[in-house]
Write a structure and sequence with these properties.
Elements (H helix, E strand, L loop, with lengths): L17 E5 L3 E6 L17 H5 L7 E2 L8 E7 L2 H12 L4 E9 L6 E5 L2 E3 L7 E3 L7 E13 L5 E11 L6 H9 L23 E9 L6 E5 L5
Parallel strand pairs: 4-11
Antiparallel strand pairs: 1-2, 2-4, 3-4, 5-10, 5-11, 6-9, 7-8, 9-10, 11-12
InterPro entries: PsdUridine_synth_cat_dom_sf, PsdUridine_synth_RluA-like_CS, PsdUridine_synth_RsuA/RluA, RluA_PseudoU_synthase
Organism: Proteus myxofaciens ATCC 19692
GO molecular function: pseudouridylate synthase activity; RNA binding; tRNA pseudouridine(38-40) synthase activity
């Protein structure tokens, strides 16, 4: 089997990480779109959420990741024991995650569940694909509004604003599930959201809500972060 080579080089991200909350145990941030969660093997991809935060919080570790193009809420552990406790909540699916997204076209149904297993695409790294041999994956969607975006050429682009709630946490899950639904996320370079006649500056996917239990205080925390689009 041929070795997979990752040729992606991330362009510079000039946006700052916004720290929304911090205590001696954890940090809650607003990640900008266009910033890696974790530094890549290529030295040109050293800039990342972890790389930046580790300068200030030397023992911090990522509890979960957001895709390069996705913005929004991320939870960071300040030391190993907290990372273990928070990762357990994610693996037990007791953490609730809600995303805001703009999808291409108008969805017919106001809400629904996408239940489609996901596997790695062996021929098109880093893409994933829907496969009966993949890992189970479920996502909920809820339509917020259907509207038309007026383009420079005078045409109107149909878009649907939705909230997406993943039950599982597979790689690229929301992006490929929306493609499977027939309405890819606007600005998605891997799953059909790049339209020749529309200029998009980013992936229109934002982690807007995160609910978890503080491992020390046992307080139920619900964080909200408004979508920038």
């Amino acid at each position: 089997m041929s070795k997979i080579v990752d040729t992606f080089i991330a362009p510079p991200c000039h946006q700052e990480i916004e720290i929304l909350y911090q205590d001696e145990h954890l940090i809650l941030i607003n990640k900008p779109s266009g910033l890696l969660s974790l530094s890549g093997k290529n030295p040109q991809n050293i800039d990342s959420v972890h790389y930046r935060l580790a300068k200030q919080f030397t023992e911090c570790t990522l509890v979960h990741r957001l895709d390069f193009g996705t913005s929004g809420l991320m939870l960071i552990a300040r030391y190993k024991a907290i990372n273990v406790a928070l990762c357990q909540q994610f693996s037990q699916r007791s953490v609730k995650k809600v995303y805001s997204a703009l999808l291409c076209g108008h969805l017919k149904q106001d809400e629904g569940i996408i239940d489609a297993p996901i596997a790695k695409d062996p021929t098109l790294f880093p893409r994933m694909l829907i496969s009966s041999e993949g890992k189970s994956a479920r996502s909920h969607y809820q339509v917020i509004e259907r509207f038309y975006k007026k383009l420079e050429n005078g045409n109107k682009l149909p878009l649907t604003r939705v909230t997406l709630s993943p039950e599982t946490g597979r790689t690229h899950q929301l992006r490929i599930h929306c493609q499977y639904l027939g309405h890819p996320i606007l600005g998605c370079d891997l799953y059909g959201g790049l339209l020749d006649y529309v200029q998009t500056t980013r992936l229109m996917l934002h982690a807007s809500e995160l609910q978890f239990t503080h491992p020390i205080s046992q307080e139920k925390i619900t964080a909200h972060n408004k979508s920038p689009f």
